[in-house]
Amino acid sequence: MAIRQLSPETINRIAAGEVIERPASVVKELVENAVDAGARDIEVVVTGGGLSLIRVTDDGHGMAPGDLVLSVERHATSKLSEEDLFDIKSLGFRGEALPSIGSIARLEVTSKARGAADGHGIVVERGAKSAVRPAALNTGTVVEVRDLFSATPARLKFMKSERAETMAVNEIVRRLAMAHPDIGFTIASGERKAIHLPKCEASARGLLERLGAIMGAEFMADALEIKGGGSGATGAMRVYGFAGLPTLHRPDSSQQYLFVNGRPVKDKLLIGAVKAAYGDLIPRGRSPLLALFVDVAPGDVDVNVHPTKAEVRFRDSGRVRGLLIGALREALEAAGHRASAQGGALTLETFEPGVLPSMAPPAAPGDSGTGGQWTAPSGMMPNTAHAPRGSWSYGSTFSEDRQAPFSAVSQPSADATAAQAPMPDALLDRPLGAVRAQVHENYIVAQTRDGLVIVDQHAAHERLVYERMKAMLAAGRVATQGLLIPAIISLDADDAEALCEHAEQLAELGLVIESFGPGAVAVRETPALLGDTDIDGLVKDIAAEIRAEGTSRALKDRLEAIASRMACHGSVRSGRRLTVDEMNALLRDMEATPYSGQCNHGRPTYVALKLSDIERLFGRR
Q: What is the second-level CATH architecture of the domain 8-197?
């Protein structure tokens, strides 16, 4: 077949197929043009999911009649210098959006330049351009698109429902609104109530206010400010924005927003950096909530590697990745033991006003029949340091479980005694407060100056042991304790072989093993940090961890996963009673340890309730 040149109309329709995937793509191009035009308020109206009508109105600089004619010609732009194709400082620059839209729909552009006496308009009907005509409007531009894809009806078959297309439009506008909090946005669709995002001040506070309006008050309450800087090949680079606490996460990444030079992107490098920064702080399969902005010199990033500019390519990707990870980890570490405020809110939601089962109140001292004592309900241990002497006794026994020792306590665990001194009042001002009780041999109740805290002792100590083990691992080697008699562990033959293959890595974590014939290993040393742990269960769990992960994970990731498993075995167990000193020591360690607001599996280690919330439960407020 002979080679022939395509007609301009066909060329425009092919370009439209690359640039315009769905109505949301049209909205993205038009809103980006409005932002580049210096608009302070942008209104987006869609009907029929954007297939019937898309109207974008802005109060930007506007266009003169001559510019209006050129705006609907291919590869005509005011945003790109022919001398340097990589010095791109605007969102749109390729000059294809308007002519591509006009080739597959009815496009009407009306504009009035700032300072001009009159406005003008032009219509493009499926590629056919009209003459410029006078029009009445305020300064700015109105772009109206009707009957999208009417010239390419086959594309209509691939459109989703009206609701789905409208949601895609809203998402596009929200992403652009995040990057430009100093611009007001209004989104109206059909009969639905319009979404209005007022202008915010150009500051970190204004950005958080805009993010809160889009991502919700839940994110706003648990957001950490992210900021960091560095230098690239052609200039400075920086990262800023807000990220949620590790205890605030979702099953998908729909609430992860990433921007490069103000442009919303879905870049694999940045997504990978976020995963690496959060690491073991969130459960596997969950995603943190965040909105991060990376600013680099235009010459350090290629934004033209994708037709819709959804992906970018960095000149120095390693430096960008390191900058992002460093900024995130610095903020997460600075947050210390802080946990999501959502935990307290969810706790309050579980309370339902009602009548408790009848229970005899404590008898007054000297009353007949009780001897002045009251037996605590099963599973509840009060802090007797704050109770009248002789007013409590215990009706249940407890068992000592194997666990890592508390470094701050030298005496063995036992029941708190009434002879202990009252708790110092200054502890009420500590973030996690002063211990008041232990309930169900697993939950520590502490009082703060303005509320109370409930701590999961096993989850909290698990994180503490894990962080200490990671610190030892980073320092060179985990301290070990030798066994007088090696522990022989029987395993599946494949598990035993896998453990022996990883013996050198396990030795770095303080677990020294060697083969003991088919289907068995001998354990000669264990991490000293774990104390008298359940060696059999520990080794079998580690074997399962190695078998599940295989050899695909990096060495550091495998070591940390195994260390996490060890910490779980070495932490204080549920069902163990602690003395008041031990419980307070645990709280103080949590306050001094980064990431202690969540356990190794990403679950919160404590919830905090404000006194005002508790009073509201009882109708006092």
A: 2-Layer Sandwich (3.30)
